[in-house]
Design brief:
Layout (H helix, E strand, L loop, with lengths): L7 E6 L4 H15 L4 E6 L18 E4 L14 H7 L3 H11 L9 E4 L5 H12 L4 E4 L15 H15 L16 E4 L2 H9 L7 E3 L6 H5 L13 E6 L11 H21 L2 E6 L7 H9 L5 E3 L5 H6 L3 E4 L3 H8 L4 E3 L10 H11 L9 H13 L8 H8 L6 H15 L1
Helix pairs in contact: 1-15, 3-4, 8-9, 8-13
C-alpha cells in the first residue's frame, strides 16, 4: 500500500457464512481506517448444489459471478464435468480472464474463505497475475485439511482419474483447503495452525485470529433459561440439507429422520415437549416435511432467517446430527444432543470425520428411539453438561473473546501496508 493510499480490499463471498464473516471484518477495518474501500465478489452461483447468492450485510459494491455470466454452460451437477464440456483448459483460462476485471482498480489484498472451487482458484490465479497477495480466512470450524478422501463410488472414480487429467492439463488441480499458496492463513485455533504446518504451510504464513462470526457469542450471557416447573422441555432441531446436497445417502438421511420422529413421539408420551424445527438457509422443505408428517404432535417451524444464536437461547437443548449448530449450542452453554449418521453413509471422509468428532466430545449420543426418549427424560431432570470435553471443543471454536474480527482486520491492514 503506497504512502497516503487508502487500502482497498477484494472480499470473495463463497456462500454459507462467508458474507457475514467478511462484513464483520469490513466493519472492523473501517474502525481502524475509515477511508478504506471494498469490493465484494459473490461466487455462490457456481455452487451447483445450492446456487443462490451469498448473504452479505456489508456496504461494499457487489459483483456476482455465475457460470452463465462467464460464458459457461452447466448441463451437469459436477463442476469438473461442466468445465470439460466447456473446453477444459480453454474454459478455465476464460474463467480467469472473466474474474480479472475484479483487479481494476487493483486491490491491495484478496480475502477469501474457501479455495476449492474452480472459480475460487481462478480468482486466486488472477491475483497472482496482478501481484496481489491473497489471504485465506478460516470462517468456521470443521475444516478438512488433507482429509478430502471420497467415500461414495462415483467420487472415488473421479478421484482416481484426477491425477491423470491434471497431469495432461485437461483440468487444473484443486489443492486441499488452504494449500493454494496463500500469503497468509488466518486460522481459528492453534490446532488448525499446527495442521497446516504439518501439511507444508510455512509457520510464518499463519496467524491464529479466531472466528469473527463467533465474536457475538462472547457478548451473550451464559446463563441457561429456567424452565417453568413441570413445563414442557423446549427442543430445537437443526435440519440439514445433507441429502439434498449429496453429502449423505438419501436412504441414510431418511432413516435418521424416521428414527428422530419415533424417539420424539415416545418422549412426548412421557412428558410435555415443545419442538422447534429450524430449517437450513440453503435447504429445501422435503426433509422438514418428512419429519413433520412422522410426528404425532405439532412442531413449531423456524425459517432459519433469524440468527441461530437467538434460536438456541430460546431452547432448553439443541438436537441435530452433525450441524455446526451443535457446537454453537455448547458455546452458548446449551446442552447439545447428537443423533449420528453412520460413517459409511457419507460421500466424503471429511464429513464423516466431523460426525465422529461430535460423537466423541462428551455430549449425549442417541442411535435408537429409546435412547432419544431416555436422553430427553434425563434432560428434564437436569441440564448439566459435566461430561463435555471443553478443551477439545475449544480446539474447534478457537479464541472466543469478542476480538477475532479486529485481529483479522489488523492482520489484513499489515499485509495491505506491504502490498
Amino acid at each position: 500500500m503506497r504512502s497516503g493510499h487508502a487500502p482497498r480490499f477484494l472480499l470473495v463471498g463463497t456462500g454459507g457464512s462467508s458474507g457475514k464473516t467478511l462484513a464483520m471484518v469490513e466493519t472492523a477495518i473501517l474502525r481502524r481506517v475509515p477511508e478504506a474501500s471494498f469490493l465484494f465478489a459473490d461466487t455462490q452461483p457456481f455452487n451447483l448444489r445450492s446456487r443462490g447468492l451469498t448473504p452479505y450485510p456489508g456496504t461494499a459494491e457487489v459483483r456476482v459471478f455465475s457460470p452463465q455470466g462467464c460464458g459457461m454452460r452447466t448441463p451437469t451437477g459436477s463442476q469438473t464435468t461442466n468445465l470439460l464440456l466447456n473446453g477444459g483448459p480453454f474454459a478455465y483460462r476464460r474463467l480467469v480472464d472473466c474474474v480479472s476485471g475484479l483487479f481494476d482498480p487493483r486491490p491491495d489484498v484478496v480475502v477469501i474463505c474457501h479455495d476449492r472451487m474452480y472459480v475460487e482458484t481462478a480468482i486466486l490465479r488472477a491475483a497472482r497475475r496482478h501481484g496481489v497477495p491473497t489471504v485465506l480466512l478460516q470462517e468456521g470450524p470443521f475444516c478438512a485439511i488433507g482429509d478430502a478422501r471420497p467415500q461414495a463410488a462415483g467420487l472415488r472414480i473421479k478421484a482416481a482419474l484426477a491425477p491423470f487429467v491434471n497431469r495432461l492439463g485437461i483440468v487444473p488441480s484443486i489443492p486441499d483447503y488452504g494449500l493454494f499458496g496463500h500469503d497468509r492463513i488466518l486460522a481459528a485455533s492453534g490446532r488448525y495452525a499446527d495442521t497446516w504446518i504439518r501439511a507444508g504451510v510455512p509457520a510464518d504464513r499463519i496467524e491464529v485470529t479466531g472466528v469473527p462470526r463467533f465474536d457475538i457469542f462472547a457478548a451473550m450471557p451464559e446463563a441457561r433459561p429456567v424452565r417453568r416447573d413441570n413445563g414442557p422441555l423446549r427442543l430445537l432441531y437443526l435440519a440439514q440439507p445433507f441429502a439434498a446436497h449429496r453429502k449423505v445417502s438419501m436412504k441414510a438421511a431418511s432413516a435418521a429422520l424416521d428414527l428422530l420422529a419415533a424417539g420424539l413421539n415416545q418422549a412426548c408420551e412421557e412428558g410435555p415437549l415443545e419442538l422447534t424445527i429450524r430449517a437450513h438457509p440453503r435447504a429445501g422443505g422435503h426433509a422438514v416435511k418428512q419429519l413433520c408428517d412422522a410426528l404425532a404432535f405439532e412442531p413449531a417451524l423456524d425459517s432459519g432467517e433469524r440468527p441461530i444464536e437467538h434460536a438456541i437461547r430460546d431452547a432448553d437443548a439443541t438436537v441435530g446430527h452433525y450441524s455446526t449448530g451443535l457446537l454453537e449450542s455448547l458455546m452458548l452453554n446449551r446442552p447439545a444432543i447428537c443423533m449420528p449418521i453412520p460413517s459409511s453413509a457419507f460421500a466424503e471422509h471429511s464429513e464423516a470425520t466431523k460426525q465422529r468428532w461430535l460423537v466423541s466430545i462428551g455430549i449425549p449420543v442417541c442411535r435408537t428411539p429409546e435412547e432419544i426418549a431416555l436422553t430427553l427424560a434425563a434432560q428434564r431432570a437436569s441440564n448439566e453438561m459435566k461430561a463435555v470435553l471443553w478443551d477439545v471443543v475449544a480446539e474447534e471454536t478457537g479464541i472466543v473473546d469478542g476480538g477475532s474480527a479486529m485481529r483479522v482486520a489488523d492482520a489484513l491492514l499489515r499485509i495491505a501496508t506491504r502490498s
